[in-house]
User: Fold this.
Amino acid sequence: MTDQELGIFGEQMAQKHLVKNGYAIRTINFRYLKFEVDIIAQKDEKIIVVEVKTRQTAEIGEPWMAVTKKKQRQIITCANQYIQSRDLPNEVRFDIISIVHNQYRTKLEHIEDAFST
Assistant:
């Protein structure tokens, strides 16, 4: 599986996980300038901005560890544009879905409220 295929697999798995757990998917791969948000969902009256990180191994650390402060600022910038352009008054939460997928296992970890503005 190429890195691109693995990324697509991870995002699809994350979407299924969210829907199964009562989230409504609003937007996938929202782009603003050079930034991108993987998934924007809604649960109850809250907008959930989700960054998905998928790796084949956790040998050098769990995938969620790749969401650096710089990446968080990029996600927040992109999410703010999405919310302002739609005049959404909803509360916003930033989650990370961390996935390790290889021939031996698939492990999904959903970290709610992983970072804030």
